[in-house]
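Lab meeting minutes (informal)
Scribe: AK
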Amino acid sequence: MRSVVQQNCTTEIVLHAAITYSDPYNDVDVDARLTGPDGTSIDVPGFWAGGDVWKLRLSASTPGEYRWETRCSNADDAGLHDRSGTLVVEAYSGDCELLQRGRLRVAEDRRHFEHTDGAPFFWTGDTWWMGLTTRLDWPHGFRELATDRVAKGFNVVQIIAGPLPDMDAWDPRGRNEAGFPFEAGFERVNTAYYDLADLKIAELVRMGLIPCIVGMWGYYLPQIGVDRAKRFWRYLVARYGAYPVVWCICGEGAMPYYLSKTKEEDAAAQKKGWSDVMRYVRSVDGYHNLITIHPTQYGREQVEDPSLMDFEMLQTGHGDLDSVPVTAQTVATAVAREPAMPVINSEVNYEGILGRCWQNIQRLCFYHSALNGTAGHTYGANGIWQMSTAEAPYGPSPHGACWGNTPWREAMHLPGSAQVAIGGRFMQRFPWWAFEQDQEWRGKPDTTNTPYQLQAVSLPDGTRIVYVPLCWEPPAILNVAKGQKHHAYYFDPCTGEETDLGIIQGDGNNQWTPPKPPVVHDWLVVVRPE
């Protein structure tokens, strides 16, 4: 059996069982070993695709001729065991930057991400928790939203593959066109559900959006059990691991179900159980896709061993302006902790939630995160995370309250999404991973009665950047030598436009104060030595 595929692209090998099984999902394991032209090999699981069909999905980042061979837990099954073939990997010839550069990994400095080819990657994510359900219609609505996000500059989509938050597992809002992710009692997956999910995950990759696949919401673990959760994650790894994806083991890992009467016991069991699942996923994914967990605050506090994670997700609140100082402090704390790892603020102040958290809050949270050392940022909009529609508003959560029913097509155009993406592009102008907090080169403005602070960073080449949350009186930039020339400009975080301030020099006190900006709102001041 010979297949040809371009590098970083996925090919599918179809196998047919020679034996009939009563419970193939639970009773049969098929694995493949993929050996490259240099003799190194990886092991990846295959998945049951319904009936007598099993599939392998394979990819490679380096051109050459590879050999694959299978092992089945039932060695007597000649259709699944000891099958082999050749995979010819050719150079990628398309225009998708994600497939040109390859999947993500953690860079050597442990502060940021990079692609397989070494290109740095600043995470600019969007939140589509319920994007695999019928609440986001396929293909038109799905492609409409993805096209909008690509045009704005997003490069990651956080999306849930299994049972969803803000509902129970059999809530009709959690269906796709083929039903629920699981059959009754979580006995086995509904393969038809994932046949449709395949189309959507592949479409995200084709459009250059990295799927950050969340297994399920954390509070389902007491119902499904650790062993079944591992079996489900093996299935996800087999189905999507060959794509350039990121794994998020679960959402709000240690948070019990909203109406649980045993919350303390559930929280402890979830923390232990999801740690076991995370360890298992690392052992079965031969592609070594990055692994994390979505938290209630700090990701590392959702598991027993933080070293199981490749990077840390944060959740820093939905309290509008009150969440801004919490965001800055939470990020700074996470970035400084050991073991060192990249940090992503993966949930904060969904735009429009509870009728607030508008675009000004989106900008404040983005820059108070990014300039405190994160490796990127995830935006969210109320109406998009739950894919509300005008015809079918999402409605209340199990606790009885409703977060808001803005339709996703309306929420898609909220200005905060474009402004967060503008921030992502601004960060990519610089080696952001080398930013250092430096409070000695800028003045101390009056921050009386404000819940936020200036965010100031510098680079080894002398570049200085300060985010001024309300630029009424611009801050003085200190230690600008009178005889040394610098170039300065204002960057508008609302529009992405620049206001050139020309060549500047310090005064007799070796400081320089920018002129007032064109209008008063938040601004970034950039000063670079000539």
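Next up, CB showed the second protein from the same session:
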Amino acid sequence: MENLVDTLKAYGDILGSENVIVDEASIFAAQTATFATTQKVLAIIRPGNCAEVQECVRIANQYKIPIYPVSKGKNWGYGSKVPTQDGCVIMELGRLNRIVDYNEKLAYVTVEPGVTQGQLFEFLQKKKSNLMMSVTGSVADSSLVGNTLERGIAKGPYGDRFAHVCGLEVVLPTGECIHTGFERFPNAKAGKVNRWGIGPYFDGIFTQSNLGIVTQMTMWLLPRPQYFQSFFYSLKDDSAFEEFIDTLQSLKFQGLLRNSFVIFNDYRMLSTKQQYPWKETDGETPLSEDLMQTLRKTWGGGLWIGEGALYSASRQQGGIERKLIKRALKKTVNKIIFFDDRKARIAEIIRPIYKWITGIDLRDIMDFFYNKNLQRGIPTDKVISMTYWRKREPVPSNMDPDRDRCGLIWLAPSVPFDGQHVRAALKIIEETAKLHQFEPNIGLQCVTERSIDMTVAIVYDRDVVGEDERAIACQDEMMQKLMLEGYIPYRLSTSTMNSLPPVKDDYGKLLQDLKQALDPNNILAPGRYDFRKEWPESL
């Protein structure tokens, strides 16, 4: 490409040659996702601070070679770190990994994009903090900022991460730097505790967009409750499903369930517990309903398995809330179990005897249910093992779905928190997945009292010839059918950026005007969430 040699030299002068990566193995890895991609990456650059990010952006403008920023690049199932279009230089922000500010009383922390879930958890542990974060099911080494900018979903009371952040530091596509909210004023006392600031609110235009590079963000944390309970429940009778969903929605509206939680279907539950039972199926896919009935017994037979948590000011309050939830759900669920610190202590006491009698180690069970429960703000790498569901090799200790050619595509339709709407969307998902010979692997992310964000995983083995093509065909058909019924995704992969239905207004013109004003040379992540097919004219 014209100017590439000069561009890379300019980057090297700013960052040092060790932070301009062009070797074949690194480039190949950067072009690899959990589904088929064809985009070519020119190089990888690794700035170490905001000033270096600014200089790199100026170089990109000078030589007209676009850059594609990623935080840690673990956007598995949505495109990993692969750019949306060909011919980009990937800007990895992992070296920007400082925890810049922290306040225990006001419960906030300011982080750079390289700060991970695990890093923040360890930081709070060392500080002996009484604060916790809402964590996602992704690995501990995933970026807090990266997930928040995708408007990702975590577990716990602050599960809608973007609703609990403020004070962004942003490098614009021209190389200028701005601070949002009150943070733009020197010595502003409320910059890290007030979302809106004064004047137009800009934070939102830097999420799911290519209008700026966020180099700092303040995230609000949650004080640990005086009394915590996790609970789990299962649904055996499919005819009670709509009433079950509507009951949960009512509990959310009443404020009894104030955390973000997930309801798994049986296929999602099984994929987090084991790999595909190749021996029992004689290599046939998808998993048969007869075998699925047998495998359900490993967790008690539920078609749907839900989780929840109570964050109470006292044990007495928690006891009352527990009774109310049990009373509300008893009509539709066949089993509901609560776990607290007392049960965890009892399990630890009887663990050696129980293991001797049954061969089962209660520690693993109680880690899942209580000790290391995600609802307590403790990150884990275990959930990502789901990506190895259809692989024939054992799950490695150092999991890397891109490297190991795990097939994973996420679809994420948003539906009203209403049993009939959820049922309608599920019918489309289940029928389409089975038509393409995939298991309908589904989670219902209950974040707010008004909507559910569904997460549908198409999980397969990229080493099987033809599976990439079949998975993409399944994704495309499922997405189109869902959107035809009005269930639009809340998040997109790099392969679906141009798949949304036509809009009914001038949204495309507004986005075009913003992009051309903020990025006149079109150098920042072209094609990423900019919906160019809706523009009156292209750049």
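CB comment: Residues 502-539 form one domain.
No objections, moving on.
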